[in-house]
Structure formats: C-alpha cells, structure tokens
Amino acid sequence: MTVADTLSQLVNGLAGASTLFLLASGLSLIFGVTRVVNFAHGSLYMIGTYVGIAVAEHVGGATGFWLALPVAAAIAGALGFAVETTVLRRVYRAPELFQLLATFALVLILKDATLIVWGPEDVLGPRAPGLEDAVRVGDATLAKYDLFLVIVGPLVLAALDLVFRRTRWGLLVRAATQDREMLGALGVNQRWLFTGVFVLGSALAGLAGALQMPREPASLSLDLTAITDAFVVVVVGGLGSLRGAFLAAVLIGVLKALCVALGTVEVAGWSFNVSKLTLVIEFALMAVTLAARPWGLGGRPFPLEERRATVELAKTPGIRFWLGIVALLVLCALAPLVTDEYTLVLATDVLVFTLFATSLHFLMGPGGMASFGHAAFFGIGAYTAALAVRSAGVPMLVALALAPGTAALAGLVVGWFCVRLSGVYLAMLTLAFAQIAWSVVFQWDDVTGGSNGLFGIWPPGWASDRATFYLLALALCAAGVVALWTVVNAPFGFALRAARDASTRAEAVGIRVRRVRWLAFGLAAAAAGLAGALYVFAKGGLSPEVMAIPRSVDGLVMVLLGGVGTLVGPVVGAALFTWLQDFTLRHTEYWRLVLGAVILLAVLAFPNGVAGGLARLRERLA
Amino acid sequence: MTTANPETSPSLTTPRRRPWLRALVAVACVLGCAGTSRFAAAGDVIRIGELNAYKTFPAFLEPYRKGWQLALEEINAAGGVAGRRLEVVSRDDNGNPGDAVRVAEELASREHVVALFGGFASHVGLAVSDFARQRRILFLAAEPLSDKLVWQNGNRYTFRLRASTYMQTAMLVPEAVRLHRRRWALVYPNYEYGQAAAEAFKALLKARQPDVEFVAEQAPPLGKIDAGATVQALASAKPDAIFSALFATDLAKFVRAGNTRGLFRGREVFNLLGGEPEYLDPLRAETPAGWYVTGYPWRSISTPAHTRFLDAYRARWHDYPRLGSVVGYVAMHAVAAAISRAGDTQTEKLVDAMEGLDLDTPFGPIRFRAIDHQSTMGAFVGRLAQKDGRGVMVDWVYRDGAAYLPPDDVVRTLRPAH
Amino acid sequence: MNLLEVRNVSRCYGSVRAVDDVSFDVAARERVALIGPNGAGKSTCFGIVGGQMRPDAGTVTLAGERVTGMDPASLFRRGLGRTFQVTATFASMTVAENVQTALTSHGRHSLRPFGRATRLSRTQAHDLLDRVGLGEQAERPCAELAYGDLKRVELAMALANAPRLLLMDEPTAGMAPPDRHALMELVSGLVQDRALAVLFTEHDMDIVFGHADRVLVLDHGRIVAAGDPGSVRANAEVRRLYLGESQP
Ligand SMILES: Nc1ncnc2c1ncn2[C@@H]1O[C@H](COP(=O)(O)OP(=O)(O)OP(=O)(O)O)[C@@H](O)[C@H]1O
Ligand SMILES: [Mg+2]
Rounded to an integer, what distance in angstroms lies between the CA atom of residue A9 and that of residue A480? Predict the structure, then answer.
C-alpha cells in the first residue's frame, strides 16, 4: 500500500467510525443507565436516515440538508420519548432482559411502519451542499464529506464529555452507570433521568442516521445492520464509556478499511481474499476483547457479579406436573389421527423450537447466563447431521445421535470462555462466537455449501411420512425437554441455580461455579444441537441462516415470551411464537406489524412472560 | 404443538389441580383451530401456490406481485384454463429456507395447489426446489438466479424462468471482449450469486481474451459494503475496467462513493443487473453514464408484445412496471400455459408439458428447455445514461437467453443424471 | 501446630492497604474475635482466609497445609465454613433447600444430573436448621426471611461440611440483643461438641468480650493489639483508637 492509499483508507475508516460512534454512544448511554438491551436503537437510526432525506428533499438546498440533521435527531428523540414513557417504563421491574422482548416488538413494528410510510424502494439522499466532491491530497483522493465526518465524531464526543463532566444531570447519568443503587439513595428522580437518557440516546441514533444520508441510501435493512454494529462497538468500547466507544468505533472502522485495502493476498502460494474478512472482523475483535479484557477498551474492571433484580422461588414440580406432561404427550402422540399433514409439519417445527428454546432457557433461567448466540449450537448440530448424511452417508438416526455430540463439544469450547463472564458481556461473547461460526459456514463452500447451504437431506423411507417424522420429533424433543427438566430438578440444577443466585456463597459451600456453568453450556448446546439436527430432516436441508443472528433472537423471544421464571415458559413461548408467526405470515399483509403488536401487548400484559403471568393469575384466583 | 397452550402447563410456582384436564381442553382447542383449514373445492378452480419473501425484498417483490396478479386476472377474464378458473394462494416465506419449505408444505398439503411458483433468494429457491423434488410437485422458480438451480442441483420438478447468473454474465462478455481492456477489477457481494458471477465472468473473458489480467477482487458482505474503502482499494489497483455484480443498497453506495472519488472516470464499468428499474431508479441523478448493464429499459421497448403488457400494467396499477413485474407476469402465464398444454393438473403431466413449453412474453417468445428446465427468457443489455435526473438504459439490445447457454453436451455434464 | 496460621499477609486495593502485613493464629477449639473500626480490613482478612481473594503477599496455612490463594470450593472441602458480612443465600430456594444444596455439595453430589435434589439430605438439613433455631421456617422461601434469620441460614450452610474452622463476618448483625447471645451460645456449643475453631468479627462489644477466647484488634490493616479479652479491654491504645469511637 502506498502512503496515499493508507491516508485515503484512514479517512474512510475514520469517517465510518464517526457515525458508528454516534450510533453506539446512544446505545451505550441507554444501556449503561437503564440496563435495557435496546434492539430498537437501529430502527431509530434507520428512521433518522429516512426522515433526514425527506426533510432535505422537501426543504431543498443547503438549508434543507443542514436542517435535516437536527430535525431527524429531534424526531428520533421524540420517538424515543414515546417508547420509553409508554412501553419501557412499565417493564423496568420485569426480570432481566425482558425489556429486550419489548424492543424486539418495536423493531418489527417500526420496520413495517417505515415500509408503509416510505415504500419499498431504497431512497438515495442528497449530497451535502458544499461537500459534494473530493479533494486531492498528493496522490490521495479524499471525499470532503468524509473529512467533515472525521471532525464531527470527536466534536460530538467532546460535547457529550462536557455534558457528562460539567453538568449535574451528566453527573447523575455517570453515577447511574456506575452504581444504580447509590442513585436511589441520592434521592434522584430516576424516572425522568431514565427518560432523559433514552431521549438523548435516541436523538443520537437519529442524528447518526441523518449524517449517513450522503453515504448510504435509506433502506429497510438499515436497522439490523446498524444495531449489530452498534452493539459490537458498545461492548468493545466498554459499557457506558463514551471514549471507549469512540476508540472502538475507530478501531473497527480502520480494521475494516484495512481488510478492504489489502484485497487478495498471497501467502506461500495460497491466495486469500482478505476483503471477505469484513464479514466477521468486528465479531472477531469483540471475541478477543471480551476474552482478554471483558470490561472493554475504555471501561473499568468491574465486579463480574451483577445483582439480580428479583428472584422468585422455584418449586420442584411434583407428581401431578409429570402426570400432566405425560397426558399431554399422549394427546400429542394421538394428533396424527385427527389433523391434516400441514398441522403436523407446523407441529414438528413447534417441537423443534420447543427443544431449542428449552435448551436456551436452561442457560438463561436456572443458569442465569443469557446467550445471544444460541443458534450457533442449533446450527452446529444441524450441519453435523447434514454433513454426516451427505459426506459419510450415515443413516438418519446415527446423524441425529452425532449432532448433540458435536454441538456439546462446541458448547464446551465456547462455554470455557463464556463462563468467565456474566450478564450482557457473556451474552455478547456467545454472539461473537456464533457470528464467527456462522461466517465459517457461510464461506466454506466446499464443505458447507456456502451461502446456499445443503439440501436433499430428507428422512429415509420409513420416516418420510409426515406423521412418522412428527412422532419421531415428538419422542426426541420430549426426551430432550424432559431430560433438561430432570437436570434442573437434580442436584446439578440446584448447583447451577445456587451459582446464579449467589455465586460467592455457592463457591463457599464447595460448588465449583465455573465448572457447573461450563457443563451447563455443554448440556444446553447438546439439546440445541439435537433440535438443529431434527430441523434439517424436517426441512430437507439447511442454510447458514440456521445459525444466524435472527434465529438466536427468535430463541430469546420464545424464552422471554413464555417467561424465564417458569419451567414450562420456553415451551409455551416456542409454541406461541411459532404459531403466531406462521399465522400472521399466512394471513396478514403487514405481518411484522401484527406480530410486533401482539408481542408488545403480551409484554405489557404479562411482564413475567405468558406462562409466568398465567401462573400468577391462577395463584391469585386460588 | 406439544404443549402449545400456556394453560396446560402448571408452572413451577403452582403445581396443583388437574393439570391434564386443562391439557385436554387446550389440545382440543389447538386441534380445533388446525382443523378449520379450507379445502379446495375441486372441479371449478385450479389452485396454484405462490411463495416469496415479500417483506424481505419488497422493492423487487411488490412489483412482482402486481405482475402475477395482472396475469391472473387476464387468464381468468379469458375464461381460465380448460374452462376452470385459476386461483393463486400466495404466501410470504419470510425469506429463509426453513420457513419457505414449511409454507410450501402448507400450500401443497393443506391448500392442495397443483403447482408452486415464486422464490427470490437463491438459497430459498434451492431449498424449495428440493422440496418440490421430494414432494413431486412442479415448482417454477421465477426469480432466483443461481446456476445450480437448473444445473448442479437441477431436478425433474423444477424449472426456472429468469436468465441465470451465468447467462446474464455471458451476455455482458461480448461487450467486454470488444473493448479489449487488459486490467480488470472485480467487485461482488460475498455470497453465491456474486461469487458465481465473478467466476463466470473471469472464465468467459479469459477464454476469449487470454491476455486479460484481474488486478483486484473485492467481496463486501451483502448489504454492508464499506463503499469508500472498496472504491479506494479498486482505484489503487489502477484497473482499465471494472466488473461489478453489486445491486440494491450496495450498488447505490458504491456508485456514490465512486462518483465522489472519480473512480469511474476513464474506466469502463460493467454491472450485472444494474439496469433493472428496481436498482437503477433509486440512483436518480447519481446514475453513472456509460456503464454496461443488464436490465429492463421499459420506457423504450416498442415491440407490440411489450406495449400490450405495458399498457395493461399501467391501466391496472397506475404505475410503471419493474423487472419484477415482468417476471411475475410471465411466471403466472407460464404455469397457466403448462396446465393448458397438459390438459390435466397431475404433476407428472404438468412437468412433461412444461418441458419444451413455448410461450409468448412481453420480451418475445421463450421456451422452457427440456434439457435443463431453464427458460430462454433473455435480458436487455445496454448502457446507462441520465435523462431528466433519472437513470435510463440506452443503446440497448435484447439478448435472447438461448444464445448464452453452454452447448448441450456441456449442460448434460453439469446436470445430475436422473 | 495451630489449625490456622496466617503469616505476613497483605492486600491492597489500588493505593489503599486494606491488610498490611498481618499475622495471627487460631487454635483448634478456640474462639477468636477480629475487631476494628469500619474499614479496618476485617472483611478483607476473612476473604483472604476464606479464599475469596488472593493476598498480595504472605501465606495462609490450614491444618498444616499451605492454602494461600486456594479457591473457596477447595477450602470448603478442607473443612472451612464461613458466613458473609452481606448475607448471600440462594433466593430462589426455600430455607431447607439452601442447606440441602450445601449438604449435597459436601457429599460431592453437586454434579449429579438426575434424581430430585429436594429429596437429598432432608433430615440433616432439618437437623441443622433446628440447631440454629430455624426449624419452623424450613419450608419458607429464603427471600422472605428477616435479615437476622438469613444470618442463621448462612450459619446452617456454613456448618454443612462439619467444618474445622468457622469464619463469621458479623454473624449477629440485624438481630435483637437476646438473639445475639443465643446465637453465640449456639456457636460456643458447637465449638465444644465438634472441636470447632471460630474466627469472627463483631461490632457489638458485649458479644466480643462475652464469647471470644482471644481478641485481635485491627486498624488500618495492621494488628495493633492482641490478647485475651480482659487485656485488650484494658489496652489504652485500643480504647483511644477504637472503643472510643464505636462504642454505642
Ligand atoms: N473491592 C474493593 N475495592 C476497593 N477498595 C476496597 C474494596 N473492598 C474493600 N476496600 C477497602 O479496603 C479497606 C478495608 O475494607 P474491609 O471491608 O476489609 O473493612 P472492614 O474492616 O471489614 O470494615 P467494615 O467494618 O465496614 O465491614 C477499606 O478502606 C475499604 O474501603
Ligand atoms: Mg467488613
């Protein structure tokens, strides 16, 4: 690379980093103060871009463009206000991560709303007046707008820094980030502090979106690309640390530009296109950061144990519970007698996701370890089964038996790193591993079929009938779920819960917390792997999507929808979500909107999940 | 469905009182709901299943839907097929193979459709194609471009309408050869379509111009191109010409960043799909003049077949057609023609009828080749220009797909033996 | 050989020397009180002995074995039980289940993936709970208990491994004075029955002087006085330094 190249790529990297920083700083603030994992942050960014372009075009000219920036920020801020006061405020007290479900619903709703308002086509925004073209510095060509962005990032950082260091409000925000209990003691009105932070964070997202106008068309996929990038920056930078976020954004921007700049490199006669690494580089960075310095670049070392909000008594189910389950299984086994084929196909999906969700719940509930990358184990099980059939030609049942094994192995490898962390850090590390695994599968054409995946992997003759396969899935999934429930109620499950409730105490009574958690990872992964293997045969094949982020998110949504606090929560959640999605997909036009609205209502009506809510209702009636 | 209803499941907190009675009621409810599926009233209607990722790729698929709806109305207005009305049961497949296979299953087993058509992304198309093989139901892949759909993974029950990645790439190659540029750079989205396009382009060009040199290759992730960096990396390789397979958001970002930095000045650029209204229209004043693209210059095609389609489409939808509109329109007509030719809705007969089926389309006559089930629908190859702040295609020619497919003996080696 | 030997241990938090070159012993059947003003470094000492934190320097020996920096779970296996200043119990379990979990761990069944955990060690758990005066509360959710009762649950759990050495960080905080003495009586009884040694810290001087065989006084991380209760009570420096400020 020449000096000119390096300079140009540096400016590219820094310009990208600026908007990324703005976006991530908002997310970081919101997370730092309210502990809400706000999936909808990317949606506000997307709306920022759309609004920005609309204003710039409507008003026109230089005024239009520069006016668009504050207007987009204000509208995103107003949306944030509405979301915080009408939805989130009601669920702050809900169990950990439950707010994530609400923000997931918002993502769905905002996406369809954007589609309704702006239509399906991408909208390319105007160039920035006065900054349309590029300047030449020596041999390097530098876009003026990029240079402008390079300055904006640090300016915003400085402004935010000033607010947080010099104003009383900023001081409170910082205090809240570091110690929430102390804040209550200070007698601060938490409500408005939270609202204020949410509005500021949302406005920053909107501003970031509007600033992207000249660089990127407004499109309906902006929300998801933005949110994953932003999370990575927040985590790499360190929770609640703005300077860290800035540093992380710069690092990621420059690393990506570097990958692109290197292009195809030849090492010892082996050529590799480094630009393909842009698929995964930020997740690799996140994994390294979390493994080596979990508190991030700018954060401070923190006590890894976070205080849990409310812990409910978990009673070990008695004989009646198990009798009920047996009765239910018998009924399910009789289902093929009365239903049509499609119901069995849908029911098979429900079974597979029930096992998947239960395995995630095993980690999240009793284990207290939320995984944002659980689909990795599902996917590894699925690919194991598919490859076993494809390459080794083993029979289906053998493939089904192999899958949990490799998945468990993957779970133990990932778990070994993850159990050293807790809370969102742990969750993000699982996500990083999942993305790395996904990108390997996505790229490795010769073995995994690359982006297309593998197909033609149907059950053999004896099980090809939909009813037979359904019964097989029923048997295996029920066995998996019952096995996990048995473990939860066994000494191992108690040790796991003990480690979750009070890990210092658990250690002091001889429970090796890390080992218990590590084994839990392996076990949960095995169950997820079995679910994945069944999925392959149910669908006749698979593609990298089986282990992509949306599948992990679906798992989280199922668990949270059903309720983390109860054993049957994931079962209820998986059935409800799969059925709802199938129903809305088939019967409504704007199915995301409908699905989102239903989930949002469920969130408000059942802050302990549907199963949890019903259990409480019954308690009250009894 | 195992434990579908929340009420069935006693939670950890209160495990008492007749859980199974509740379970019974709940399962009865679930089964009840499931049982209410509609069954096709056979005899007067023929049901056809359609599935696509409407909400995942709305820019292409909303016009596509309008296209097949228009065709459906035309067919039924003309008395249907063999005296029976056609009915399309359309579903969103959520853009992933797993859900698509389930939706296909629903269409086949509950809605009793006689054939399936649709599909956008290649991996979904391939999954549904394999489902069609296994379930023995005709599937017309309308949009997916993957070569594998009819070659490596081809099967008896799957046909494909659009000109494939290979064909469209091949259509651009003669221009590239004619220009005789030595140093080429490539940029393509990092997944099968982009990789296949780049491979095909390199192979075809190298075969016809052995002195060609590929000096840079960039494979940004789909939908996440880092445009500034990519443009810079391409520029520093100092190519004479660029081949791009970018589309949608990636294309817009690439064009803007390239224009800003002067990447395209003095360089020939070839962009697969770049002239499709879905991807060209958003570029507006940014449209790079002079690019060689495949696409659909709907404004300036004046064949009677196209004019008839254009007028009907505009009258029906008060909007102009995109390429998706044509794809949807022709796919619907193709399925109807196959049924009419077979004189029956039985799958094996439909497949036989589809093989070698000739069809008149807005683009002219096409045939579904018996040898690989690929249609000979072509594409328009031309150059981009700006007109009144809009992107248009000029100097275009229609390239019939039949001329851009490998020879039959090669095709036979590509396709698995039945 | 003493049961516990602490030699020259130090521990810093940044620039704060929380424990500074501290040495002391605890013999079998001995009740030793470690006292000192707030922030003196008592809990840090307990943490070092209990394995919750590593000392920066110095050694800890338990029954002749070097256990410096050993993890708490291993120390539990070697007969060390402890309670914490800020109570930590398993809030999602009943009182009995808390103790059962500790007993199960002592029986090395914690990793068993089958069998109902609630059936294991029930009688032993109830016995322990009866001993600490919580027999009535056994089936209540732990999260509902009063602070003083949580301290008792912790004590019951700390006794699950039939410890040789019991560390108690402010065991009677949050209890009414009569209960405090009752609890300490109980502990003294255990010392007799089970040949137990106890290292505890307390802010209530009546408890300290009534139930300790020996008292160590810590200030700013250093031991400033040591001896039997009578001599420490009489120590002028201790009076000036410590008793003057925190005696109620
Ligand atoms: N995690 C920590 N990080 C930084 N400083 C700490 C930490 N824990 C304790 N300290 C400091 O170390 C010193 C000793 O603390 P320690 O808790 O051992 O005192 P203590 O004698 O138990 O006090 P108290 O009677 O209040 O319980 C104090 O100055 C305290 O502020
Ligand atoms: Mg203390």
Answer: 51
Read off the pLDDT of each residue in A590-616 and give the average, rounded to a whole number: 88
**Tokens representing residue C134 in the block:** 């919580």
Contact A206, A45 (CB under 8 A): yes
Q: Alpha-carbon distance A73 to A54, whole Å?
A: 13
ipTM (interface pTM): 0.94
Packing angle, helices A190-211 and A41-59, rounded to 10: 50
| Minimal C-alpha gap between A619 and chain C (Å) | 16
Residues of chain C with pLDDT under 70: 241-248
For residue C210 the two structure tokens come to 């009534």
Measured over the CA atoms of residue C186, residue C189, residue C193 and residue C196, the dihedral's sign is positive
Tally DSSP H helices, then E strands, for chain A.
26, 6
Residue-range domain boundaries for chain B? 45-163+302-377, 166-300+379-409
Just give the CATH number of B166-300+379-409. 3.40.50.2300
Structure tokens of A562? 């059903």
Asked if A236 contacts A289 with a C-beta cutoff of 8 angstroms, the reply is: yes
Helix (H, G, I), strand (E, B) or coil at A450: helix
Residue A94 identity (one-letter amino acid): A
Residue C226's H or E segment, with its range, is strand C222-227
Specify whether the CB–CB gap between C138 and C96 falls below 8 A: yes
Q: pLDDT, tens digit, for every residue of A211-228?
A: 999 999 999 999 988 998
Domain boundaries, chain C: 1-79+163-248, 90-162
Task: Please check whether residue C42 is in contact with residue C65, taking contact to mean a CB–CB distance below 8 angstroms.
Answer: no
Helix-then-strand count for chain C, H and E: 10, 10
Q: Reduced to 3 states, what is the DSSP secondary structure of residue B61?
A: helix
Q: A403-418 pLDDT, tens per residue?
A: 999 999 999 999 999 9
Mean pLDDT of B144-157: 93
Q: Does any ligand 1 atom lie closer than 6 A to the CB of residue C38?
A: yes
Distance CA A271, CA C133 (A): 74
pTM over 0.80: yes
> Quick one: pLDDT band at residue A173, thresholds 50, 70, 90?
confident
Cα–ligand 1 centroid distance for C222 (angstroms): 13
Q: B389 and B287 in contact (C-beta within 8 Å)?
A: no
Contact of A536 with A549, CB cutoff 8 Å: no
User: If you search the block for the tokens 């594998």, which residue do you land on?
Assistant: B148
Q: Which residues contact C186 (CB under 8 A, 6 or more apart)?
A: C131, C132, C133
Measure the CA–CA gap between B95 and B120, rounded to whole angstroms: 8
Note the residue count of chain C: 248
Phi-psi group of B180: left, alpha or beta (phi > 0 → left; psi -120 to 50 → alpha; rest → beta): left
CB–CB of B248/B268 below 8 Å?
A: no
CATH of domain C1-79+163-248: 3.40.50.300
DSSP state letter for B42: T
- Name the superfamily (CATH) of residues B45-163+302-377: Response regulator (3.40.50.2300)
Task: Classify B4 as helix, strand or coil.
Answer: coil
Among C42, C48, C82, name the best residue to mutate to test ligand 1's pocket (greatest count of ligand atoms within 8 A of Cβ): C42
Question: From atom 12 of ligand 1, which residue's Cα is the shortest distance away?
Answer: C18
Q: How far apart are CA A150 and CA A145, in angstroms?
A: 9
How many beta-carbon pairs under 8 angstroms link A with C?
Answer: 128
CB-based contact A320 B19, cutoff 8 Å? yes
Q: How many angstroms separate the CA atoms of C132 and C155, rounded?
A: 7
What pLDDT digit, counting tens, does each position of B1-54 carry?
A: 333 333 333 333 333 334 444 444 444 444 444 433 333 344 689 999 999 999
Q: What's the distance, CA C151 to chain centroid?
A: 11
User: Which pLDDT does position A382 carry in this prediction?
Assistant: 97
CB contact under 8 A, C76 and A510: yes
* Residue B3 pLDDT: 35
Residue C229 identity: P
A562 touches B: beta carbon within 8 Å: yes
